[in-house]
Amino acid sequence: MRTENAWYIRCGFVTNGIMAKRTYDPNNYLIPPPNLDQGLCKALSGVDQNGEATDLFVINEKPLTLYLNSREVVTMMTIGDHPRFLALGFLANQAMLDPDNPVTAVDFDEDLDVVVVRTKHATDYEEKLKKRVRTSGCAQGTVFENVMEAFESRSLQSIDAPLKTSWLYELTAKINVTPSLYLGAGAIHGTVLCKADEPLVYMEDVGRHNAVDKVAGWMVDTGTDGADKILYTTGRLTSEMIIKTVMMGIPILVSRSGFTAAGVELARQAGLTLVGRARGRRFVALSGEERIVFDSDPDEISEEDPRHQRKGAHV
Amino acid sequence: MRTENAWYIRCGFVTNGIMAKRTYDPNNYLIPPPNLDQGLCKALSGVDQNGEATDLFVINEKPLTLYLNSREVVTMMTIGDHPRFLALGFLANQAMLDPDNPVTAVDFDEDLDVVVVRTKHATDYEEKLKKRVRTSGCAQGTVFENVMEAFESRSLQSIDAPLKTSWLYELTAKINVTPSLYLGAGAIHGTVLCKADEPLVYMEDVGRHNAVDKVAGWMVDTGTDGADKILYTTGRLTSEMIIKTVMMGIPILVSRSGFTAAGVELARQAGLTLVGRARGRRFVALSGEERIVFDSDPDEISEEDPRHQRKGAHV
C-alpha cells in the first residue's frame, strides 16, 4: 500500500525532524496554521487510477453548535480547532456582540460539540435571527439582515494605510511555503492576518467563512486593531468576505482567487482595497487602488514554484 | 487600457466568429453552460501589478428569493440563469417536494427577483424549516434536518452502474475545453450531468450548491432518472455534495477537487462511488470503488494542458 507521504516531505512536515529547505517557519507566526499531528485529518483508504490501493490524508470536519447565552444561534461544520475564536469571531462578524455588553465567558464542551458565549446582560439575538439570507457560493450560508445595517454604517475610507507591492509579494511567498493543512491534505481554505510583510495569524478551515471568523475571534480576544493590518484569503472575493473584512476594520483584503461583481461593489462602497488573483508577480486591484504603493518591479518577481502553487481561481 | 480579452480568445469565445481549435462544442450538450454574452458578467475597471489600468470580466450575482406556495423559504445569491431549475432543484434536494403533492406551477418574477413554486395541496414546510444547520465550507449553508432523514432512507448500493476509466478521462477532457463562464471569467463552480462519456447538462454558479441544484431541477422538470448518470463537479466533495447527489439518485460523483472525511463517510454509507482529484491521468476513489472498470492505461492519458487546467484543490 502506497501512502501519500510525499506530501509531508514536500511541504516540510517534520516526520524526520528536519524541515524542508523552502519552508517558512511556523514559529514566525503568533498563531501558526494547524499541523497534521493535531488529529484534524485522518488517513482513508481507496484506490488510485491504476487500481492500486492508496491512503489519502483527508480533513475531518464536525459540527459545533454555538449558543449566545441560553439561545442556540447556529451549528457550524468545522475542523474543530480554536472553538473560542470561531465563536467570538462569528458573533463579532454578525454584529451580535455589543461593546456595552461585554463577553464574560466562552465555555467549550468538547463532548457535546457545543460552545457557549456568555455576556453580562441578556442579548436581543431573537430579533436578529429572524431574517437569514443564504449567501453566495462558498460562503457562510447565512447572513443576518442586521449585518447589512452594521456594514453600511462603517467606512474604511479615512484609514491611511499603504499596501506596498513588495509586502504583497513577500506575504504571498511566505504563506505559500508555510507548512499547513492545505499543503498536507488539501481541500481547505486559509485566512491570514498580516502586518506589512509579516503574516501573523494563519487560520484554516473547510469553509473560508470559518477561517476568517477564527481570525476575527483572535482579534476580539486580544483587542487587536485592524487599521494597520492586511487580510489574506485563499478564497474568492464574494460579498460575504468583503462584509466580514469591513466588520473587522481591516482596510486591505488580498486573495489569490477571483472577484464577484457584488463583492467589488461592496468593497468600493466601504473604501476597502481589494486585490485579487494575486499569484506570483501578478495581481489585479478593483477597489481602493489609491492605497497601493508600487515599490517593486514585477519583472523581478519569479512566478510561483508549481510545487507550491495553491489552486483557487473558482474557490 | 488593456482588456483581458485574451481569455475570450483562449477559451474559444467567438468575438471573431471562429472557435478556438481545442474546444468542445456547446451544441453537444442538452443544456450548455452560459456564455459571456448573456449578461451574467460585467467588465470592471481596476489596475494590475504594473499600475496599469485594466478591465476584468467579473461574475454578477444577485439575490433570488424562493417561495413554496405562500411561504418564503430562502434567499439565494445566484448568477440568475435558470431560476425555474434552481427553485425546483433546491426543493427536491431538500426533500421538500412530495410525489403525492405535484408541482402545479413555477412563477418567476424578474423584477422582484422572486420565484414561486406552487403545489396542488398545502405543504408542511414550517416544520421542516425549523432546524437549519450551517454546513461546511463552500456549501449551501443551510441543510434542513429532515434532509438527513430522507438521506438515511436512501441507498444507491443496489444500482449496478459501471464507471469506465475511459469515460472518466473523456468526460474531464470535454468539460475542461467547453466554453463556459469559468473559462471566460473565473471565480465560478460548474456541475455537469453526464451519461457514459457524454456530458449532457452543464450548470454554473458562484456557489456549487446552486450549480448542482440547477442540475437537479432540470432532472425533476424533465423526469430524468439518475441511476445511469454520472455527476461531475468542480468543487470539493463535502457532506452536502454527497447528500445532494444521493437525493438525485445518481450512483457516481466525480470531482477534480479533494475530499472531506465526513463526505467520504456519507458516501460509503449510501453506496455512492466517490472519485476525487480527477485531473489529467490521476484520480483517487475513496468509496464505491467496485463500480470502476479500469479499461484505460493511465500512462496513455496526457496530463492536462496548463491553459485548460481548472484550479480547485481547496474549492
Helix content bin of chain A: 25-40%
Question: Would you report the number of β strands of chain A?
Answer: 17
- N- to C-terminal distance of chain A: 32 Å
Low-confidence stretches of chain A: 1-20, 133-141
Tertiary shape of chain A:
globular
Q: Helical stretch count of chain A?
A: 9
**Rg of chain A computed from alpha carbons, rounded to a whole number of angstroms:** 20 Å
How many strands, which pairing sense, and closed or not: the largest β-sheet of chain A? 6 strands, mixed
Order of helices and strands of chain A: EHEEEEHEEHEEHEHHEEHEHEHEEE
What fraction of the residues of chain A are assigned to beta strands by DSSP? 25-35%
Oligomeric grouping of the chains = homodimer
Strand order of the largest sheet of chain A: 12-11-13-14-15-16
Q: How would you classify the helix and strand content of chain A by structural class?
A: alpha/beta
Q: Residue-averaged pLDDT of chain A, rounded?
A: 86
Describe this protein's structure.
Two copies of one chain form a homodimer. The first copy, chain A, is an alpha/beta fold and 315 residues long. Chain A is built from nine helices and 17 strands. Chain A has helices spanning 6-10, 83-93, 125-129, 145-152, 165-176, 181-185, 208-222, 239-247, 261-270; strands at residues 2-3, 41-48, 53-59, 62-68, 71-78, 103-109, 114-119, 132-133, 143-144, 163-164, 189-195, 198-205, 230-233, 252-255, 273-279, 282-287, 292-293. In chain A, a hairpin with a 2-residue loop joins β15 and β16 (282-287). In chain A, α2 (83-93) packs across α7 (208-222), α7 (208-222) runs parallel beside α8 and α8 (239-247) runs parallel beside α9. Mean pLDDT of chain A is 86; it is low at 1-20 and 133-141.
